[in-house]
Amino acid sequence: MSSPRQVVIDDTDNQIRYFGQNWFQDQGSQDNAGNFGPTYQKTSHGTTGNDSISFSFVGNSVTVWGTTELAKIANGTIFDPSWECFVDKISIGSTTPFQYAENNWVLCNQATLNDGPHEMTINVTTTGNTFWLDYITYTPSAAASYEKAVLRVENSDPAILLGAGWGSLGGTANQTTAKGSQAKFDFVGTSLTWVGFIPTEYPHSSAVGTFSIDGGAAVNFKLNGLSATATTTVYNQVFFTTPDLPPAPHSILVTYNGGIDAATPLTLDYILLTNTSLPVVAGATSVSPSPSSTPTSSPSSDGTQTSHSKTPIGAIVGGVVGGLAVIALVLFILWWRQRRRATRIQSSPAYLGTGGVPSTSAFSQPRQPQMHAYASTSSMQNLHPEPFLLTQPIPANIPTQSRSDPSSSGSRSASPYPNGSGRPVHTPTHTPATSLDASDVSGYAIGTVNQTRAIRKGQNMAPAPIVTSVVHQDSGVRLNNPPRPNVVVEDVPPLYTAT
Predict the structure, then answer these.
(1) What is the per-residue burial (b if ≥16 Cβ within 10 Å, else e) of 355-377?
(2) What proportion of the chain, given as a percentage, has pLDDT over 70?
């Protein structure tokens, strides 16, 4: 089963908060202690006082690493310094003291946590011996984002492909002594460091290998091996580090070329991968240190800064308000144009007599009035000729403001009620001459459309009829008025205003 990738936080990273007056930074003075290799990045933080550390993370496991260099006090019954670790204010204790000096030593560990934000705290107690912190690793949440985070990729990671000639080494690493054997690893990041063992049970003479990035030129690296008299395996050895790479997907191919004779093997314990993203650090509640402790600043380490993601609330609100403003402006323009169009239509001749709703046919072609013979009542059977009624609205080609005829000086007002009485008014528009009979000299039959056109155009004909207009107040039922000789009655519907 493969181990999950873990984030590595160096002691110089400002995500680690130091409390107390006795903290100091060390530059590799402990690198030669023991056989567990040098300190990470050749730096450590030490304290000779009762100080503390706090660190926030989002994940499901955490491990604290440092240098164990203990002294026995109280007649050899107590190790000094001592420390106690807490996760979310719950003690997880510390590892069993080890009396010999070693780097890369686990100081405390919590392998299983609920996935989410947590707060790690370490309280140090010492009589003056130095407590050393080197780095912290934790397993990030699966949904965490990354930006220049250093990841520890174990040799069992499924992305690491080992070719022929590779085998297991102590159940914790892999090794090969076969010349030409290769390993391939596809990754996304900006640099990579290969870390392995130098095992004492294999030949101690040096060997060489190469690596190439993205199919480029091979780069040589050397495996120094152990001294001829060494009897102890050395761990956490850096075999090579790639140059800085563009933040993009890459592939590395590592080849073992061996030595002149039997040589030290190429081993793989883990890879330190500088990724292109960083886990989100939760704003967990800080664990308060002892009252006597005061925070001290720590230099930052490039490549391990936390990226806090914030929702651009101002941009979202601005976009919404701007969008609503645009919509309101468009609606206002449409309303204004519609109102302007309605006003223009209302003032046009086609609007007359339609009850406030313009006729669409008035804009396509002039409408002709439809005429029919007036049906005389029984008491008026002897009247001749038969007058006619206008049953349709006045056509659009006839002006509504005023109308004159060559044979008359009278005019008809466009107002529905010119006398202000609120009632229909009969206003004569033509001066009567002689009666109009069936033998109309206009040449058109009585009551036809052609005869009406001739009358309205003032053609030379026999005496013109009397034309009167009745402007109605409403659109109710029309009662036929008794016919009069030589009289043409025009019914004008009500003139409504636009709403």
Answers:
(1) eeebbeebeeeebebebeebebe
(2) 60
